[in-house]
Prior knowledge:
By secondary structure, this protein is an all-alpha fold. The protein has one domain. It has 8 helices and no strands. α2 (32-50) runs antiparallel to α5 (74-113), α5 packs parallel to α7 (151-171) and α6 runs antiparallel to α7. The longest helix is centred in the middle third of the chain and has 40 residues, at 74-113. The protein starts with a helix and ends in a 6-residue tail after the last helix.
Amino acid sequence: MIGLLLYLALGVGLLVFLWALARRKGAPVEGCGRQFVEARQALRTLQLGLLPENLIERIFDQEDYRYVTATSPGEIGELFLQERSRISLMWVRRVRSEIRNLMHFHLAYSRLHAKLSLLTEIRLALDFALLLMACRALRILLYLRGPYGARSVVRVLAATAGRVCAASEKSLAFLNPPALESFRRDSAGHGAAI
C-alpha cells in the first residue's frame, strides 16, 4: 500500500512538473536585443581581454616578483605583491562577471536561437557550474596564498572558460552575417571603407 502511494505521489509530482514546463513562457521580446549585445560583449571581453594566454601568464607568473624582491628593498617587494594580488582578484571578478553574463544569456535566450543538443546543454551547464566554483576557489586561494599559489586553478578556469566561449560563439553566430565580410572585400578595392 505504501509503495502504491509513493508511485501515485511520484506520478502527480511528475504531472505537475510537466504542466509547469508546458506553461512556461519563452523569453520576453523586450530586452532581447540588449541581452544579445551584452552576451556578445561578454564573449569578446573574455576572448580578447581576459583569457589570452600571455595575459594570464603575465598576471600569475612569479618571475616579476622574483626580480623585484631580488633587486629592491623589502617594502617594495611587499607593495608589488599587494598590487599583484589586487590585480589578480580584479581579474577573477571580471571573469566571473562575464561568465555570469553568458550564463544568463544561455539560460534565457540561446535555446530559442541556437540548435544545441541536450548533451551540449548539459555539458555547458556543468562548465558554467565548474567555472563559478573555480572562480570562488580561486578567490579564496588568492586571499590565502597570494597570486602565485593557485596556478592549477587558473589553468582549469581558463580551459573551461575557453570551452564556454566556444559554445557561446556558436549560439551567437547569427549575429555575424557572413555576407558582410564579402561586402567589405568588394568595396575595399574601390576606395570605400566600411
